[in-house]
Design goal:
There is one protein chain. By secondary structure, the protein is α+β, with helices and mostly antiparallel strands. Helices cover 44% and strands 23% of the residues. The chain is built from five helices and seven strands. It has a four-stranded antiparallel beta sheet. It has a three-stranded mixed beta sheet with strand order 5-7-6, covered by helices on one side. The longest helix is centred in the C-terminal third of the chain and has 22 residues. It starts with a strand and ends with a helix.
Amino acid sequence: MSFTSHIYQIKFSGSRMPEKILLFESNKIIIDFNKLKPDDYSFKFGSYFGTSFAQKIITIKDPKYITNDKSPNKKFYPISILHEIGHSKLHKSPPNKKPVGLIKYEMEAWEYALEEIKDKKLKYNAEELQKFISKCLKSYIKNNHA
């Protein structure tokens, strides 16, 4: 299965539990997501992005749940995968539910993703990316502290 996100092509091998997730630009592999995640973690498709520390599973949103081609979720899909990999590498358990702990936990994973974007020289509009991350941070607080 493959999926187009922004100027990138993402290719998955495997069905429910993707064995390989690769990011391409102009038929050249830019990122092998499997090499970035911890060896003891697996990927799984789901209806959301998330990380299960107990099961050691990184859930990535199944592209079939992204129906709007102009959706920021589609454009920033690779970055969202990097964000979840960040959780798996940086954290050992979910954060406490207090806003400060939650924001710190999420910001650390976004900072990991931003470093990978810079390191891999991915092409994104910095202002649009910052708006996307801000929207995500607001949604974490809203969904966890409403």
